[in-house]
Amino acid sequence: MKAYQIQAVGEGQLTSLERQAPGPGEIGVEIAACGLNFADLLMKKGTYQDTPALPFVPGLELAGRITAVGPDVEIFNPGDRVAVFSGHGGLATYGVFKAALAVKLPDTMDFVTAASFQISYGTSLIALDHCARLQPGETLLVTGAAGGVGLTAVEIGKKMGARVVAHARGADKLAAAKHAGADILIDSEEDLRSRLKELGGADVVYDAIGGDVWKAAFRATNPGGRLLPIGFAGGEVPKIPANHLLVKNLTVIGLYIGGYQKTHPQIITNALQQLFEWHNTGQLNHHVSHQLPLEQVEDGLELLRQRKSTGKVVITMG
Fold first, then answer.
1. Would you call 275 exposed, middle or buried from its count of C-beta atoms within 10 A (0-12, 13-18, 19+)?
2. Region at 123 (left for phi over 0; alpha for psi -120 to 50; beta for the rest)
């Protein structure tokens, strides 16, 4: 089997590995596609909070067809089409994964969509519904609004009845956010804090950037508001002044969707069931901006690093 493997911190290459057979509770999957995420970049650098031991194959989410099932696996059969929220191992032509991490695909969903659907949509729905309890009529700020996760937050926020403010860099990215349902657009060259205050402030902040963007959004959050630090693509981990939390009765809610795999997997399952239903009925407009072959993983990661993608980047296995 071919795989993109991280063999040392900061160093990845395409290599050939021995194919493994699934053990108890596991499934073997012929991988068709794998969605790239910013976490893959952090894993390569060795700075992600859940980086596997070296050497490892990155790739958090994938889709393909089951080729074999291990002992005690009763809910899947060879030939089933599945998506797997694997955590790693997706950037390969084959992989062995825990059956509990897999979900059967609806007939209406292709492998490329499925490979890039779980983390982006799952994160946004869990964040806005389960965590922030976003209400109709509230103002939602989404930073990094043209990214793979940001676009889904715009789309789901609008679906939940919020007034959605999208913050992104440049006309093309703002146009993508508008197409996803954003009501108000703010370019990253503008003064975010001032613009938000002009709009009456934000009730919920969904921030994937961190750094100065987080600081500006934090300052413009309304009393009683909820803030979700989803990531820090800008490079600086958000800092939270607790005294401001007290004065304005703010709530900061951390969300790492992978953590629910271990502690509350039903939250993920429920979210995906809802999302698959919406997809089946044509209520979601999933956007994949780039499809690249396995040989071009580095190019895909560079698109994420330089924030040149609008939507998801997907690696296909041939």
1. buried
2. alpha
